[in-house]
Design a protein that fits this description.
Blueprint (H helix, E strand, L loop, with lengths): L26 E4 L4 E7 L8 E6 L5 E5 L5 E6 L9 E3 L8 E5 L5 E6 L5 E8 L10 E3 L8 E5 L4 E5 L6 E6 H5 L8 E3 L8 E5 L5 E6 L10 E2 H5 L1 E2 L5 E4 L8 E8 L3 E5 L5 E6 L12 E3 L8 E5 L5 E4 L5 E3 L12 E3 L8 E5 L3 E5 L6 E6 L10 E3 L7 E7 L4 E7 L27 E3 L4 E2 L4 E2 L3 E3 L4 E2 L4 E2 L4 E2 L4 E2 L4 E2 L4 E2 L4 E2 L4 E2 L4 E2 L4 E2 L4 E2 L4 E2 L4 E2 L4 E2 L4 E2 L4 E2 L4 E2 L4 E2 L4 E2 L4 E2 L4 E2 L4 E2 L4 E2 L4 E2 L4 E2 L4 E2 L4 E2 L4 E2 L4 E2 L4 E2 L1
Parallel strand pairs: 34-37, 35-38, 36-39, 37-40, 38-41, 39-42, 40-43, 41-44, 42-45, 43-46, 44-47, 45-48, 46-49, 47-50, 48-51, 49-52, 50-53, 51-54, 52-55, 53-56, 54-57, 55-58, 56-59, 57-60, 58-61, 59-62, 60-63, 61-64, 62-65, 63-66, 64-67
Antiparallel strand pairs: 1-33, 2-3, 3-4, 4-5, 6-7, 7-8, 8-9, 10-11, 11-12, 12-13, 14-15, 15-16, 16-17, 18-20, 19-20, 20-21, 21-22, 23-24, 24-25, 25-26, 27-28, 28-29, 29-30, 31-32, 32-33
């Protein structure tokens, strides 16, 4: 995932200056009781986002605030209310309403209109609201309106039609598995079939459930993790995201137990990995989240522990870091990118401090210490006012207040609710709706840039260039004049595209690499790090070139060719389609190699050779200058 700061772009590029946390919030609004949860959405369609807050109490309140902190209305609940509210377009009219549940032995859930009146109520459930939990929202029925998923302590999972408030189906986890449900659900298409699933866990037996969202039936047999590992869920949900870029979404859960652990499951229910953590860790009420922190295309997993330790794991469950952010924490992290390096920073919090952490070193970049403490509700991040400001919003139990911190830039990320959004997936696809450019990037006024372009710090885009939609020009990269970079391409950190060069759709040029002038690189090509491609060189679609490889000028690399790391290819070399070249191989100038040939590692091929089609050359072979190798030959 790529992140950056998003600016409006019209006739000129507007460069905004980054600021750090202010000594005090830009605004604070005191509310009539402890803040249990919050989220944001747009109830009136004006493009400015409102904040809905659950004020804990008996009775409690749902309070709607403007992006400036003004209270717009207050709805009194009956009886007790805890948890968080959930925005959704429940009637399909293009604006959002607010769903919440009350907390009692026989309590309803309600949907509120933009003015705070009750649109409808549904159900009578055994504690449908639990602290740290709330409804999920997604269009399950396919009618263009969001539907509502509610879990209750009594073991019921319910899908409600967003337009009518009618119950579509009910799943009874207590009746089927003697399970009580303590935590939110996650709604996502985990198996890529175009249909949504609902994921949640149980407290009594640690059961992991995956239901078909349309029917409420079990996708695979529920897995009791208490019997397997002595583990259970306690007020936390599931992270559902494609962690390793293989196109399948994994399910990651944080589990209480002895020891506490993180575990990942495949879309079909198989356990992929489990990482035990120190006994001092506790994930009660804390759900794992994920983002691509280092820009390598794989997600890192962050699990905040109640003892103040932030556990960071890679996509395969290996523990990468475990920084401490304070003695106690009850908030899962959120993400922001304030330095335009296309790698998000982390917004984390202890009970008394809000921290900005570097996403790679996890060093503390800035902090705000709150004298009252009690920072328990989920952190929210987004451009609430649509005014080029990124807002970081956090609430306090102790001071019964909501605080807003503003940065003079607008972030492309939107962390609008628990788990990132109303479906609570735990990871958000970060996109740039117009132009996202660092304040210290240079973009020539004659450059023609598409939408969704990200330009990192110290990057340069010279005159008369064409940059397609959704491209990334990373930190320190440069695209020289009269070059054309097609849609979806990535020019990596400190990479160089020289003048009058063409880079195809979805092609990646790695960190520190150079593509020489008047070269043509096709679509879906992967050029590794520190690669040198000479001028007037052609590289066909779907080819790949390994790190630290050099390709001489006026060479031709055919479609689908695969070239390993540390390969040296001379000038005017021709590699035809689907040729494979192993690592460390040297190919002399003016040599031609036929299609579908396989060349091993550490091979030396001299100058002016002619290697035919479908040839196999083993590792370490040396071929002298001027050699001709016939089609289909095998040189072991």
């Amino acid at each position: 995932m790529k992140a950056g700061l998003c600016l409006g772009f019209s006739a000129a590029l507007l460069l905004l200056q980054q600021t750090a946390f202010a000594a005090t919030p830009s605004w604070t609004q005191t509310l009539p009781g402890p803040v249990d949860g919050a989220s944001y959405g747009d109830v009136d369609g004006d493009g400015q986002l409102e904040i809905a807050v659950v004020v804990r109490g008996n009775p409690g309140q749902i309070v709607l605030m403007s992006h400036t902190g003004a209270i717009l209305w207050s709805h009194t609940t009956s009886p007790y209310v805890v948890g968080f509210p959930t925005f959704g377009d429940y009637d399909g009219n293009g604006t959002e309403e607010i769903a919440y549940c009350e907390s009692g032995e026989n309590s309803p859930c309600r949907v509120l209109n933009a003015d705070g009146t009750v649109r409808y109520s549904f159900g009578s459930y055994y504690y449908p609201a639990i602290s740290g939990s709330g409804p999920s929202a997604a269009d399950v029925t396919g009618d263009g309106a969001d539907d509502i998923v509610v879990l209750s302590w009594g073991g019921k999972a319910v899908l409600v039609d967003g337009k009518t408030g009618a119950v579509v189906w009910t799943y009874d986890a207590w009746a089927t598995h003697a399970e009580v449900l303590l935590g939110p659900s996650t709604v996502a298409d985990i198996d890529g079939d175009g249909n949504l699933e609902i994921v949640f866990g149980g407290w009594q037996n640690g059961t992991l459930f995956v239901l078909d969202a349309a029917t409420g039936t079990e996708v695979w047999p529920p897995t009791g993790l208490f019997g397997t590992w002595g583990s259970w869920f306690y007020g936390n949900g599931a992270l559902v995201e494609d962690l390793d870029g293989d196109g399948a979404r994994e399910i990651v859960v944080a589990l209480e137990g002895n020891p506490p652990s993180l575990a990942a499951f495949s879309p079909t229910g198989g356990n992929l990995w489990r990482t035990p953590l120190p006994a001092s860790a506790s994930f009660a009420w804390l759900t794992p989240v994920a983002s691509d922190l280092d820009g390598d295309g794989n997600m890192e997993i962050l699990a905040q522990s109640a003892d103040g330790v932030l556990y960071v794991l890679d996509a395969h469950g290996a523990l990468l870091a475990a920084p401490s952010i304070g003695p106690e924490s009850w908030i899962a992290p959120a993400f922001i990118d304030l330095d335009f390096d296309l790698r998000p920073e982390i917004i984390a919090a202890s009970t008394s401090s809000l921290l900005l952490l570097d996403g790679q070193s996890f060093a503390e970049l800035d902090r705000y210490d709150d004298a009252a403490g009690g920072l328990y509700p989920q952190i929210l991040v987004g451009d609430l006012g649509g005014d080029g400001q990124v807002n970081v919003v956090v609430g306090s139990w102790n001071s019964s207040s909501i605080m807003n911190f503003s940065f003079s830039a607008a972030d492309v990320s939107a962390w609008s609710a628990f788990g990132g959004g109303p479906a609570h997936s735990g990871a958000v696809e970060l996109v740039c709706p117009s132009l996202c450019a660092s304040p210290d990037a240079f973009v020539d006024g004659s450059a023609n840039l598409g939408t969704g372009v990200i330009v990192g710090p110290n990057a340069t885009i010279e005159a008369a260039t064409l940059i397609g939609n959704n491209t990334t020009i990373a930190s320190g990269a440069s695209v020289a004049q009269h070059s054309f970079v097609r849609a979806g391409a990535t020019i990596g950190i400190d990479a160089t595209v020289e003048q009058r060069t063409y880079i195809g759709t979805n092609t990646s040029v790695g960190q520190g690499s150079t593509v020489g002038q008047k070269s043509l690189v096709g679509s879906d090509v992967n050029v590794g790090a520190d690669v040198a491609v000479g001028q007037r060189t052609f590289i066909g679609n779907d080819a790949s070139i390994g790190d630290r490889t050099s390709v001489g000028q006026r060479s031709r690399i055919g479609w689908g060719a695969s070239i390993g790391e540390d390969v040296a290819i001379g000038q005017q070399v021709v590699l035809r389609a689907n040729t494979t070249v192993g690592a460390g191989t040297v190919i002399g100038e003016r040599t031609t190699i036929g299609a579908n040939t396989v060349i091993g590692a550490n091979v030396t091929i001299g100058s002016s050779c002619r290697i035919g089609r479908n040839v196999v050359i083993g590792d370490g072979v040396t071929i002298p200058d001027g050699t001709v190798v016939r089609n289909g030959s095998v040189l072991p």
